[in-house]
Amino acid sequence: MSLPIIIDTDPGIDDAAAIALALSHTKFDVKMISTVNGNVGVEKTTANALKLKAFFNSEVPIHRGASQPLISEIQDASHIHGESGMDGYQFPTISTSDLASSHAVEAMNEILSHSNEPITLVTLGPLTNIALLFNTYPECKNHVKEIIMMGGSTGRGNVTPLAEFNIYCDPEAAHIVFNAGLPLTMIGLDLARQSLFTHSYLDTLKDKNNTTQMLYHIFQHYRGEDFKEGIKLYDAFTILYLLDPKSYEIKEADVQIELQGSLTRGATVVDFESSYPNCSVVVSSINEHYKTIFLNTLKN
Q: Does the keyword Ubl conjugation apply (predicted)?
């Protein structure tokens, strides 16, 4: 039986890899994709989601979400992902008529409240939409199976010394989600930093099919940490984890978000010794099986 999921995202090159995996594997029943301001502005992240929908000839509805954080100033990562957020490939022409709605929060609540089974939320960007969902429709949490989130870090950040980008973009939203009382799996910087996709590995994607070719070309425009050695597909590990959770080391922890510190705002403060953990933290891979799953899934 397929796993029903909602993907909340800010595409983004590594977001594109995660979406490609989710749409390519029979395990997943993607109910909707919602977009949020993050790697680039919400108009661009929405356009990128529509480009991916068109590329895959998918029927999954795309809903535009929050254009700005709850309180923070808008952040941007176009220096990492390119001006469009997904440079490097000529995608099919899109139209705003392909957009299901501009009300992602309402759409999520509608799908959750009418589902016959709990739905997994897969979050790839800032958590603004999810926080708005929980604050506006708290009863919807009864229909959420779990949250699989890319964000945070047990140590160093990637936008400030202690803050990871998705959390830093909207710390107040992250605080709401981490304290929502739902099963939450945090897949932060730690995992991808230990699980590099080398350029020699990425070269194997060139000629498999149209999907691997598309990803190969946009990967060439990804300017994340250690690009000389390879790329870190942070968001892709949400889907890779769901496909093979036994291949990852997980620790329970209480994770809280720093909201006040002038030098530490957006940091994920991880307490592995807490008697009251609020999430599972994926700290590393046990093997490199994720590379095989990544390629085999995209072959579909």
A: no
